[in-house]
Known about the structure:
- This protein folds into 2 domains: about 40-70 and about 335-450, Alpha-Beta Complex (Aspartate Aminotransferase, domain 1), CATH 3.90.1150; about 75-335, Aspartate Aminotransferase, domain 2 (3-Layer(aba) Sandwich).
- By secondary structure, the chain is of the alpha/beta class.
- The protein is built from 14 helices and 16 strands.
- The strands form 3 sheets. Strands 4-10-9-8-7-5-6 form a 7-stranded mixed beta sheet, with helices on both faces. Strands 11, 12, 13, 15 and 16 form a 5-stranded antiparallel beta sheet that branches. A 4-stranded mixed beta sheet has the order 1-2-3-14.
Amino acid sequence: MSLLDSVIDRKTETEEIIQDNLDYTLFSWSKQKGINPIAVKYGEGVYLYDYDGKRYLDFSSGLMNVNIGHGNQRITRAVADQMQQVAYVTPSCVTRVRGELGKKLASICPGDLNKAFFTLCGATSIENAIKLARVYTGRHKIISRYQSYHGSTYGVMSAGGDPRKLPADAQQAPNFVYIDIPYLYRWNYGIENLLKDAVAQLERTIAYEGPGNIAAILLEGESGSSGCLQYPEGYLAAVRVICDQQGILLIIDEVMSGFGRTGKWFGFENHNIVPDMIAMAKGVTSGYLPFGCLMVTDKIAAKYDDIMLPLGLTYSAHPVSCAAALETLAIYEDENLIGNAHAMGKYIDVRLEEMKVKHPSIGDCRNTGLLGCIELVKNRQTKEPFAPFNAKPHEMEVMNKVAAKIRELGMYTFVRWSYVFVAPPLCITREQIDEGLAIIGEALKIADGEVV
């Protein structure tokens, strides 16, 4: 090889890192060729930095999980301290940190949700919630929402209504029933009928399926990756009443909406209800380590005082992850992150309304705390989206251009179908929100030019 060939063949550090990942790893929910991921070197606060020194404002908190922000060394120290004691014990043993974390979670959960079963992630939290609901009630059916996402393992993939499950449609788990909960932006029959129709549909579904067959209703505390589709006001309260009347358990998925994301500890607290089980992950460690939890009521737990609890995971109550979670919960309180999420969410609401005036491509903005998205439409009268539900690649042309411009201008955020997500870390400031919305505003000029 000549010196010239050697120079041409030499890759930059960034190119080598990306190429190794492309050659030897697989990417979630993506084609495997023709992609160009960001090579992240480190993160600090609300920013990510690549190997070329470019800074990206992380406006979706990774996958809506890095709630405390990147690079908080309190977690590093807590994890290192625990590893110096013991890194792993079988779940039949206990550690100090396991008990302390369970006690802390019980203190922040409402009602008598005092018992924690520790899992590995959101999917395993929901899987175990479904299993427990069935064995506890002796019933087999689970009702959930079409436009929802609960994870990608077979059980929870089947429980959710996200179209990513469709390639494995023939292998779906049985006994899941779906409802379609309307949301205000795309409801055409008067706001006074919105709640009435949603509740009536649920009641009909329960009657059709037989209430004695239904173990649980599974819903998100607040809708996330399906488009932040807000419940009709009063809906979750009505669901709670129906569950109590029919002996059905209410499982709330707080994997994305939990731990301050909506301006409260849990998303369901915006609706003044208390569920029978809470599935947690993401924000419980802010993504610093994989971890999850299923909180259940004392009443449910008591059934297994003298009989076997049929749940188990090798890495349940992993001491190092417990340490990360316990320190994360302390950071939420010490840094007033939940209060900041509430205040910054109100600020975002105001700013998004201002952006709607400037950008004709914005059809709707939906936000609760720091869990929100902007829905882009070709025409505000018809509300035709730039990309439909479960859009095919050729239907994503405009949205792909919007996403590319956002990245070019120094932002990482979740763009899906016609949605641009606004879900930054809970430590964000007004100035950083302004920075992020300015980037989105610049990218929206592309969509504005396509409005008809």
